[in-house]
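During the reporting period the student researcher (J.K.) took over the structure-prediction task from the postdoctoral fellow and processed the backlog of single-chain submissions. One of the processed entries is reproduced below for the supervisory committee.
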Amino acid sequence: MKKKKSFGYAKYGYLFCLPFTIAFLIFSLYPTLYTAVIGFTDLKGIGKTDFKFLTDDIFANYKTILASATFKTAFSNTLKLWVSNFIPQLALALLLAAWFTDRRFKIPGEGAFKVLFYMPNIITAATVAILFNALFGYPMGPVNDLLTRFGIIGESYNFLVKKKIAQGVVIFIQTWMWYGYTMIILISGVLGISPEIFEAAEVDGANGWQTFWQVTIPNIKTILLFTLVTSLIGGLNMFDIPKLFLLGGPDNATLTTGVFIYNQAFSGSYMYNRASAASMLMWILIVAVSAVLFYMLRDRDEAQLRKIERAQIRAQKKKLKEGGR
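J.K. obtained the following structure tokens:
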């Protein structure tokens, strides 16, 4: 009797993956590879699509970018703005996550609070930039109006021409927009911890603070790593708020590498080759730092267990070879 041919369901999985794969290849992988190539060429100018590779010094664009004082300022600003908003963002998100997941008490309206905390993340960057520009408007704006009414300042003050104030506002905006997202991610991680672990901690007499540091934090290490890496990627690519809020000003105080790359490529100079070189430098940095973070925050016990398993497999294979002789 002829055996009935089995029906392959796996092909439907590949079929469903096909639209994403095609979109990724066209709109993500190809532009990335094209950008990497442009960094080694002389491509610049409006409407120019033909280019030739640099022959005298193929890394000339990279050297120009690394020697640029403006790029150094932009890179310094990017690190400063990211670190200054990530630390309070993570601290606030951890505090709220611990508050919402504490088994000892129930918060009235917990769902509404979560929605309110997350809501700034769904507002578009353009809307937020316009909002804060209006709040700190000069000579008339809500902030100036309140401060003059309460006698804190004698007359209207142009806050946004001061470097420190402009950077502080950008840091606040970034923290305000993203702490809710980070909170939701951390809450999901905490809820994934087995309740038995918390029950054991309660039986042992651990208070809320001890439970948080000795039980919660060690068990969400993977979630913290994800948060750190995604925040690093987003922070080093920071573009929308610095660009839309103050166009990188005043005096390049809020100029980030993302804004620098945009200015190189589209704001008058059209130096696509240098913009591509700067983009690839940031990509290399992000990949390198992410790899270091993954290595430093890896599960050492699991890594050690895998190392022992590999050693046992090698020993078993060696024994089989010796027995075959």
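The committee noted the following: The chain has a mean pLDDT of 86.
J.K. will present the remaining backlog at the next meeting.
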